[in-house]
Amino acid sequence: MSRAINQFFNGKQVLINSLLVLVLFAVIIAYGYNCLQISNQKIILTMAGIFCAILLLIYAYALILKFFQKYSIVKLFIPVIAVAGIIYIFVFPPFSAPDGIYHYQATYSLVNLLFGLHNGDGTLPMRECDAQFMQSFITGNSISDAIVASSNQYANVLESFSNYNGNTNIVDMPSREDYAFFYNDNFPQLKIFSMFGVFIARLFNLSPAILYYFGVITNFIGYATLICIAAKIAPVGKKILMVCALLPMSLHLATSYSYDSAIIAFSILLISLILKAYFGKDKINISLTVWILVIAFLLSPCKTIYAVVGIFAFFIPNKRFI
C-alpha cells in the first residue's frame, strides 16, 4: 500500500493524478445534476455528493499517510478516531443511538447514588431541566420510542445552550416499563466514563445540553483511550482492531451513553492482551497475567457472550510462560 501511495504522489505525477481526481469529481457531480434536471431525482445528486465526499476522504487520508510515514500506525490512528468521534457526536442528535433514553437514564441513576438520591421503584429522580430536555426529544407516546433526527432536535440543543434557567428542582420521571431490568443493574465499569461527565456537569449546575454532551464526550474519550492502548499493546492485528473500533455502529455507540461502547473497548483490549501473550517478543510475566484476569473480570459479567473472548487465554502454550 505504501508503495502505491508513493507512486501516486511521486513528483510531477502528483499533479496529473490530482487533476484526474478533480475531473472525476466534476463528472460525477455533473452527472448527478443532469439527472436532477431531467427527472428531478434528487437522490442521484445526493449519492453523487456522498461518493465525492468518500473519494475526498480517501485522497486526504492517502496524502496524510504520504507525509507522515515516519509515524507509527497507532499515532496516525489517534487523530482519525478523534475526528470521527467529533463528527458522530455533533452530527447525530442526542438520544439517537439505540435505546438512547434508557442508557442516559441508567447513567443518571448511578450518578444519583453519588449525590445521595434514591432511585424509586419505577421512577427516576432528575433535575427538572434535564427531564424537560429529555422529554423534548421524545417524538412518540412513550420514552421507549426511537429518536428520529430532525431540525427540531438540533433546535432543542441550541435552545438548551442559550435559554438555561438553572431550574435544578428534583422531579420523579417514569422509568421504562418494557425493560425487565432496572437502572442499577448496569455495571459501574461500563458507565464510569459517562458517569464522570454527568457528575461534573451536575456538580457545577451546568445546562442540560452541556450535561448531555459532557457525558457523551467523556464516554468517547474513555472508549478511544482503551482502543489506542489496545492498538499499542497488540503485537499483531493492530489494523484489524482499529478498523473494528472505527466501524459506524461502534462509533455511534461510543458517542452515546450505551454500555456497549465499554463492552466493545474492553473486548478489544482483552484481545490485544491475549495476542501479546501469544505473539509477544517476551514471555508472559505476572503483570500481563494480572491484566488479562482484570479485564476479563470486568468484561465477563456484562454480557455473557463476551466471556467467550477470555476462553482463548486457556489455549496459550505452556512455553510462553516464564
What does this 3D model show about the protein?
The chain is mostly helical. The protein is 65% helix and 3% strand. The protein has a two-stranded antiparallel ribbon. The longest helix has 27 residues. It is flat, with a radius of gyration of 24 Å. The mean pLDDT is 79.
Write a concise synopsis of the structure shown.
With 322 residues, the protein is mainly alpha-helical. Helices cover 65% and strands 3% of the residues.
What secondary-structure arrangement, pairings included, does this model have?
Layout lengths: L1 H7 L4 H27 L2 H26 L5 H19 L8 H15 L8 E5 H8 L15 H12 L7 E5 L13 H16 L4 H26 L4 H8 L2 H7 L5 H20 L6 H14 L8 H4 L11
Antiparallel strand pairs: 1-2
State the main characteristics.
single chain, 322 residues, mainly alpha, two-stranded antiparallel sheet
> Biggest sheet: strands side by side, in what order?
1-2
Q: What's the overall geometry?
A: flat
Residues in helices, as a percent range: 55-70%
Tell me the radius of gyration: 24 Å
Q: What is the overall number of helices?
A: 14
The separation of the N and C termini measures 38 Å
Mean pLDDT: 79
- Spans of at least 5 consecutive residues with low confidence: none
* SSE series: HHHHHEHHEHHHHHHH
* Percent of residues in β-strands: under 5%
Classify the secondary structure makeup into a structural class. Answer: mainly alpha
Q: Quick one: how many beta strands? A: 2
What kind of sheet is the major sheet? 2 strands, antiparallel
